[in-house]
Write a structure and sequence with these properties.
The chain has 10 helices and 10 strands. The protein is an alpha/beta fold. A 6-stranded mixed β-sheet has the order 6-7-8-3-9-10, with helices on both faces. A hairpin with a 2-residue loop joins strand 9 and strand 10 (about 220-225). The chain is globular, with a radius of gyration of 19 Å. The two termini are about 25 Å apart.
């Protein structure tokens, strides 16, 4: 289980981005982290994976625990060895390598060659298109194929927790549906936990068990995916629906009402 306990994050020691963020990702569940651009979602993922330090960021207060062990001051490499793997936003592939070489990079910490070969076949079973493109240079793949490659590379690392940052960004709706179907199948079949950052709230809540809404570096609302799908504020602010069911533009929704959910 992953637990963030009231973490504070800043860049270069002075630019505060996260202000007391707490959340939990139980084993085998998909948790969505929702919010507008600049809310602090990607920073949250990087704080968990240890990639924050590469951008002169640090966790100033609070703690991040994985299986009861604090990891907020550990290196990204050690965190990766513990099974926490992040797929970065923007389809970060090694453009000069082939598709298969990109996948093998994901398994660089695994010493069992047989296990690596099995993982490669597993990825190809989920993404048959990648098998046909395995010798193609990654930089020449389409956006959707590169996104498949990024997720496949994460699978190669044998993740226990996958951190997925905007996997649907810039993709056609049918391709988004295909990729999310594969994510759903993989997590279900391998009991892998997922913390998902996604602008497409409909898609995110369609796959998630639980969700958190972030605004200006703080968690302002959380609940089951079912609760969030029917929450008036979420429907109006993120899905563009008013209480009467009429469409509303994002620009028209000036303020997000912070409502408490009473249990």
């Amino acid at each position: 289980m992953l637990k963030l306990n009231n973490i504070e994050v800043a860049y270069i020691g002075v630019i505060r981005v996260l202000h007391g963020v707490s959340l939990t990702v139980p084993d085998g569940q998909v948790v969505a982290l929702l919010g507008a651009n600049g809310a602090g979602k990607s920073t949250t993922l990087k704080a968990i994976s240890g990639l924050l330090r590469a951008e002169e960021g640090e966790v100033l207060d609070g703690s991040i625990e994985w299986d009861g062990v604090r990891i907020d001051h550990r290196s990204a490499e050690e965190i990766g060895r513990r099974g926490i793997i992040q797929a970065l936003e923007g389809r970060r592939v090694f453009e000069h390598l082939t598709a298969e070489e990109n996948l093998l990079v994901g398994a660089y910490q695994r010493s069992d060659r047989q296990a690596v070969r099995e993982a490669l076949e597993l990825v190809y079973s989920y993404f048959p298109r990648l098998k046909h493109l395995r010798r193609n240079t990654a930089g020449y793949l389409s956006g959707g194929e590169q996104q498949m490659l990024v997720i496949g590379r994460a699978i190669m690392a044998a993740p226990r927790l996958m951190l997925l940052d905007e996997p649907s960004l810039g993709l056609a709706p049918l391709l988004v549906e295909e990729i999310y179907d594969i994510i759903r199948r993989f997590t279900s079949e391998h009991q892998t936990s997922v913390l998902l950052v996604e602008q497409n709230v409909r898609v995110a809540l369609g796959i998630a068990d639980y969700g958190y809404v972030m605004e200006n570096g703080r968690i302002v609302l959380d609940g089951s995916a079912e609760f969030l799908r029917h929450n008036e504020d979420v429907r109006e602010f993120y899905l563009g629906l008013s209480t009467t069911g009429a469409r509303k533009s994002y620009r028209e929704v000036k303020h997000y009402k912070r409502r408490k959910r009473w249990l």
